[in-house]
Specification:
Elements: H1 2-7, H2 26-33, E1 41-45, H3 52-65, E2 73-77, H4 89-103, E3 109-114, H5 122-130, E4 137-143, H6 152-157, E5 161-165, H7 171-178, H8 184-191, H9 205-228, H10 233-245, H11 253-262, H12 269-281, E6 285-292, E7 297-307, H13 311-316, H14 324-338, E8 342-348, E9 351-359, E10 362-368, H15 375-386, E11 394-398, E12 410-414, H16 418-422
Parallel strand pairs: 1-4, 1-5, 2-3, 3-4, 6-8, 10-11, 11-12
Antiparallel strand pairs: 6-7, 8-9, 9-10
């Protein structure tokens, strides 16, 4: 194992190595840093290539800048070739002991393990060292499956962990990395591109298209097909295309069965339900259930699905006529989710509220529309919000450059200002 330690030196900070930290994502580093200094396991989950590895390294660098010795930080990424033989918690423990023997860290050790789901029984290592009083550790782990904390780990840790979902770049991060001014022009470009971090190092649309395609294929094959032993790979891929094309529209599994039947493709409820859950678990898509605003309860049946990144539509399936209004709705959904809300599609009387966003005891009601120029559009978009008789904040989000006066307590926001508004909550 000493040889393995030597082989991963270049990925660690021990020798003052120049580590690639990427574009600093202060929203996540600041949020996670609030939980540093205790025995809680910090868990980052999110789609492959959404930026989890960079964020882990940025946190490590932040700890060093605040006085933690470089030797007290161990960074492990299971996807590195040097660690292909690291397959179990027993081997992980051997690596940890070899690190302590070689580096001889004094005091608390900070362990970062990236893509931990590829290590069998990793939860035993995490549970043991997160509670180790003799050799104190603080653990930061990441994974590309939403079920990372299901089952045994959740039981073992029993509230001793905190989870952070990492999404592709927000609009403000997009402006930061592309050095564009906040406003209508750059926001439209944001909607028509993608926000996966690596896209911004690629100079041409063809390269971006190839990259997005490779990400999609990798997630499909490694995080879904291999993990869940999927038999009909073509159906899985076609289902994803259908969901991209139908994003932000109500649909049911019965609708999808009927669609495939019209294409002479036979499938069944159980298979489609499972495949959709696999796409959700790998963070390619998100489901928003209907929510009865008066009754304050979810409604079974039709749901809406949103893409984890707009690049899938923009670079892979742009010929489906998925308009900018739907892109805007998808982007607003992601902004709310990034801000930590559970997001639903609201219903009240005979009308729909695009989003009911709930975080603890707090909630927001949001209506999304491309423009509010016509009186008829104004009336339609404000009507459903006016039916809500509680005191939670209500917003209409649009691509209009000008601000519309407050209407019966309902605020208007230009889409490019939404992230800033959400920061105040």
């Amino acid at each position: 194992m000493i040889e393995t330690i030597d082989s991963i030196r270049k990925y660690n900070f021990w020798d003052s190595n120049p580590i690639d930290l990427g574009f600093t994502r202060f929203y996540y580093t600041n949020k996670i840093s609030q939980y540093v200094g205790n025995k809680l396991v910090k868990v980052l989950v999110g789609q492959r290539r959404a930026g989890k590895s960079y964020i882990l390294r940025q946190i490590a660098a932040k700890l060093i800048s605040e006085g933690v010795n470089m030797e007290n930080i161990l960074y492990i990424n299971k996807e590195y070739m040097e660690l292909t033989t690291l397959r179990s918690a027993v081997e992980l423990e051997k690596l940890h002991k070899a690190y302590r023997q070689e580096l001889k860290p004094s005091g608390k050790v900070y362990i970062f393990i990236d893509e931990i789901q590829y290590i069998e029984e990793w939860e035993k290592f995490v549970n043991s060292h997160s509670q180790d009083f003799a050799e104190p550790c603080e653990l930061f782990i990441s994974g590309s499956n939403s079920n990372l904390l299901s089952g045994e780990l959740a039981t073992l840790l029993s509230g001793r962990y905190v989870e952070f979902e990492v999404l592709p770049f927000s609009y403000n991060e997009y402006c930061g990395i592309t050095q564009q001014e906040v406003g209508n022009k750059s926001y439209k470009k944001y909607l028509e591109s993608g926000a996966l971090p690596e896209l911004f190092s690629l100079p041409t649309d063809e390269m971006k298209q190839n990259y997005v395609s490779s990400i999609k294929d990798t997630v499909m094959l490694r995080d879904i097909v291999a993990r869940y032993k999927v038999k009909d790979i073509k159906l899985l891929d076609d289902l994803f295309v259908y969901l991209v094309n139908s994003a932000a529209n109500f649909m049911s599994i019965t609708n999808i069965i009927n669609y495939f039947a019209s294409k002479k493709r036979k499938t069944n409820y159980e298979t489609l339900s499972s495949y959709i859950s696999y796409l959700e678990n790998s963070f390619l898509i998100h489901r928003a259930e209907r929510y009865n605003i008066k009754g304050r309860e979810t409604i079974s049946g039709n749901s809406k699905y949103y893409l984890n990144d707009l690049s899938y539509r923009n670079y892979l399936y742009s010929g489906f006529g998925y308009g900018i209004g739907y892109l805007l709705e998808n982007a607003v959904y992601l902004s709310l989710r990034r801000a930590g809300y559970q997001v639903y599609v609201g219903t009240i009387k005979d009308t729909e509220v695009d989003f009911v966003a709930i975080k603890g005891s707090q909630r927001l009601y949001i209506q999304v529309t491309l423009q509010l120029i016509e009186e008829q559009t104004l009336e339609r978009e404000y009507r459903s919000l006016k039916l809500i008789d509680d005191n939670f904040d209500k917003y209409v989000v649009s691509m209009d450059d000008y601000k519309i006066p407050t209407n019966e307590g309902i605020e208007h926001i230009s889409a490019w200002n939404l992230d800033e508004v959400l920061l105040k909550y």
